[in-house]
Write a structure and sequence with these properties.
Blueprint (H helix, E strand, L loop, with lengths): L4 E6 L4 E6 L40 E4 L4 E4 L2 E2 H7 L2 H10 L5 H12 L6 H8 L7 H15 L9 H27 L12 H10 L10 H14 L6 H10 L5 H12 L7 H12 L5 H9 L18 H17 L4 H14 L1 H5 L6 H12 L6 H22 L35
Antiparallel strand pairs: 1-2, 3-4, 4-5
Helix pairs in contact: 1-8, 2-17, 3-6, 5-6, 5-10, 6-7, 6-17, 7-8, 8-13, 8-17, 9-10, 9-17, 10-17, 11-16, 13-16
The protein binds coenzyme A.
Length: 436
């Protein structure tokens, strides 16, 4: 193929530059060749919130936001959700190929082997108030595991990385379930190796005095599908944090805790909790139109709507809507679904939402299912963090193995003062706090 070139002329100097275009991008560092004079540092690109900056090459997840396409390693999300278990998809995301039966058996055994937590871990959890937010408990406990596994610092050792990956995938459901039971004051339930990943999670959440927990297969499958849908989503906010922290060669436990912290925000994984609060606030179908008018007038956002990348229906929302119907057969219909359906219907016909290409995202319906499964809204983001741990770790592996990557360190456009004379304390006047 003919070499693709971007030619630019700097109007300050009339100098002409040529930059190679590769994969639809130029290298931002090439811009540094553009200088207005000898002591010019070179041109930078300014991109707050990375709206148009690719920070890595990645072969894991493909999204076409305009067409509403999501694929893991080339496989459409719809097929994976229909045909696979969560750990099968986890294997695909981590290693690039769907596993054979033997590979899957070994992987499941490897992960299951690590579901137990060190007994001391329970002491960390005991320190939290009974009303501590489960996401805070989750983040802190994942970070604390870094002290239990100091060998995790050997991030350049592939064998160590592999071990930490299995540890983390094995332990995150246990941490999540312990955080949940801590908030209820229930005793912790040990993992059961005979159960599948999601069944075992349900066992650790909900087993009481029965000798063996038996998960409702419809609900266990629904949870498995939700986990598949949340497993990775290319360079989203929390994955970017995973890569940024990982680029300093910090261990994967603290990297995962940092990524989970990013996920906890209401504009990211915390959105599903906000959706439920919003549906509560709306209260009934009759109030939907009035609520939408308030949003259009600039009072808040329609939570669970809009996405940085999807400017079309989020394919995950469509699958979740389907899964919700299965769940409601087993649990009875969540009345909030009717409000959500009405909200979606009215919003999708409204000029404000059409013009801005705002569609329901993954969080719009997931909270309604989680609630029907018996979770309180505070647990929703934790339920997102469990499967996303797989994506974070796959992206972390890719980062560590990528020779082009270095410690992440953006530039800034400095807008502060030039050098100033120091003012001794007795001579300082009160000035308005500088916001710049
Ligand atoms: C996801 C989200 C953060 C993406 O933000 P973004 O890519 O920066 O998009 P912008 O904030 O630039 O939005 C573009 C326009 O749509 C509006 N908009 C975006 N999301 C909206 C929402 N949920 N409700 C109402 N208006 C919304 C913005 O106000 C803006 O309008 P303007 O052009 O008149 O200023 C944003 O859509 C949002 O906050 N959604 C609600 C939270 C949520 O569901 N998050 C989960 C994501 S999976």
């Amino acid at each position: 193929m003919e070499k693709q070139i971007l030619s630019v002329v700097d109007s300050r100097t009339n100098d002409r530059y040529e930059f190679p275009i590769e994969n639809g991008a130029i290298r931002a560092s090439d811009l540094r060749q553009i200088r207005s004079g000898a002591d010019d540092f070179g041109l930078m690109s300014f991109d707050p919130a990375f709206l148009n900056t690719a920070s890595c090459r990645s072969a894991i997840t493909f999204i076409d936001g305009d067409k509403g396409i999501l694929r893991y390693r080339g496989y459409p999300i719809e097929r994976l959700a229909e045909k696979c278990t969560f750990l099968e998809v986890a294997y695909l995301i981590l290693y690039g190929e769907l596993p054979t039966e033997l590979q899957l058996k070994n992987f499941v055994a490897g992960v299951t082997h690590h579901t137990m937590l060190h007994e001391k871990t329970k002491n960390f959890l005991e320190g939290f108030n009974h009303d501590a937010h489960p996401m805070g408990m989750f983040i802190s406990t994942v970070a604390a595991l870094s002290t239990v596994y100091p060998d995790a610092r050997r991030v350049l050792d592939p064998e160590s990385r592999e071990l930490q990956i299995r540890r983390l995938i094995g332990k995150v459901p246990t941490i999540a379930a312990y955080a949940y039971r801590h908030s209820l004051g229930y005793p912790y339930i040990y993992p059961d190796d005979e159960l599948s990943y999601t069944e075992n999670f349900m066992n650790m959440l909900w087993r009481m005095v029965e000798p063996k927990y038996r998960a409702n297969p419809v609900l266990a499958r629904a949870l498995d599908i939700l986990f598949i849908l949340h497993a990775d989503h290319e360079q989203n906010c929390s994955t970017n944090v995973m890569r940024a922290v990982g680029s300093s060669q910090a261990d994967p436990f603290v990297c995962t805790a940092a990524a989970a912290s990013a996920l906890s925000g209401p504009l990211h994984g915390g959105a599903n909790e906000e959706v439920l609060k919003m549906l509560d606030e709306i209260g009934s179908k009759d109030n939907v139109r009035g609520y939408i008018e308030k949003v259009k007038a600039g009072h808040g956002k329609l939570m669970g709507f809009g996405h940085r990348i999807y400017k079309n229906y989020d394919p995950r929302a469509r699958i979740i809507k389907w899964a919700a119907d299965q769940v409601f057969v087993a649990t009875g219909r969540n009345p909030k679904l009717d409000i959500a359906l009405e909200l979606e219907k009215i919003a999708l016909e409204d000029e404000y939402f059409i013009k801005r290409k705002l569609y329901p995202n993954v969080d719009f319906y997931s909270g309604i299912i989680y609630q029907a499964l018996g979770f309180k809204p505070e647990m929703f983001t934790v339920l997102f963090a469990i499967p996303r741990t797989v994506g974070w770790l796959a992206q972390w592996q890719e980062l560590i193995q990528d020779p082009e990557q270095k410690i992440a360190r953006p530039r800034q456009l400095y807008t502060g003062y030039d050098a100033r004379e120091f003012v001794p304390i007795e001579k300082r006047a009160i000035r308005a706090a500088a916001s710049r």
